[in-house]
Amino acid sequence: MTRDEAYSLLTRHLKTRNLVKHSLAVEAVMRGLARHFGQDEGIWGLAGLLHDIDYDWTKDEPARHSMEGADLLAREGLPEEIVYAVRAHNDAHGLPRRSLLDKALYASDPLTGLIVAGALIKPEKKLSAIDVPFLLNRFHEKSFARGANREQIKSCSEMGLSLEEFMEIGLESMQGIAGEMGL
Question: Percent of the chain, pLDDT > 70?
Answer without folding.
Answer: 100
